[in-house]
């Protein structure tokens, strides 16, 4: 207690640290954190593509789309500055994008773990499929994946890029989950 607190008879307020501090974050703060996470993930993907020449396969492109979907929800929430209900809406949208990225990256990691004789045959490129097939057929073919997605083109610290992506997407999914948690704690 400070001398001023003694004079006024007030008890000092206790500021909780750790998780208690995070529970006080506003929807806007969570959305800004999520938007920064999405920007970081997409930034790394573009640096790997354009600075290091690692061309993305079709699963990689769909993972980027899923992260961009989460990013749009985060950006909308950051601009809007939502209350409790709005925070939940933006969190659910961002969580859907994050979970989509996790599923796609999980499939990518699984494909890379297959023995070479069980890897699906390489199909046509994504650009060609988008030109000649309906969008739903393209999505179905990409999710069935082709042999190009099973190739490990680079590793860092013993993990492939899809494995690192999966870790990043799981970390990203923690943000909308924390948003939901904090919105129910208020």
UniProtKB/TrEMBL annotation:
Record topology, Cytoplasmic segments: 1-30, 83-88, 183-186
Q: What InterPro entries does the annotation carry?
A: DiS_bond_form_DsbB/BdbC, Disulphide_bond_form_DsbB, DsbB, DsbB-like_sf
Cystine links in this protein are 57-60
Alphabetically sorted, this entry's keywords are:
Cell inner membrane, Cell membrane, Chaperone, Disulfide bond, Electron transport, Membrane, Oxidoreductase, Redox-active center, Transmembrane, Transmembrane helix, Transport
Question: Where the protein is mainly located, per its record?
Answer: membrane
Can you say where in the cell this protein is located? Cell inner membrane; Cell membrane
Task: Tell me the SUPFAM superfamilies matching this sequence.
Answer: DsbB-like
- Quick check: keyword Chaperone in the entry? yes
Q: Which residues lie on this side of the membrane: Periplasmic?
A: 48-65
Membrane topology annotation: Multi-pass membrane protein
Q: Which family does it belong to?
A: Belongs to the DsbB family.
* Functional note: Required for disulfide bond formation in some periplasmic proteins. Acts by oxidizing the DsbA protein.
Name assigned to this protein: Disulfide bond formation protein B
This chain's source organism reads Cobetia marina (Deleya marina)
């Amino acid at each position: 207690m400070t001398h001023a607190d003694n004079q006024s008879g007030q008890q000092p307020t206790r500021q909780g640290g750790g998780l208690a501090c995070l529970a006080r974050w506003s929807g806007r703060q969570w959305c800004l954190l999520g938007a920064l996470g999405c920007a970081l993930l997409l930034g790394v993907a573009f640096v790997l593509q354009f600075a290091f020449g690692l061309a993305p396969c079709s699963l990689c492109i769909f993972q980027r789309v899923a992260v961009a979907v989460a990013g749009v929800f985060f950006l909308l929430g950051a601009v809007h500055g939502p209350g409790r209900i709005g925070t939940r809406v933006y969190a659910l949208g961002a969580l859907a994008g994050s979970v989509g990225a996790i599923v796609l990256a999980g499939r990518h990691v699984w494909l890379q773990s297959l023995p070479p004789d069980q890897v699906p045959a390489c199909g046509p490129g994504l650009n060609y499929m988008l030109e000649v097939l309906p969008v739903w057929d393209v999505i179905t073919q990409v999710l069935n994946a082709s042999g190009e997605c099973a190739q490990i083109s680079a590793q860092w610290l013993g993990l492939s890029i899809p494995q690192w992506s999966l870790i990043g997407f799981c970390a990203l999914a923690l943000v909308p989950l924390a948003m939901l948690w904090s919105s129910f704690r208020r």
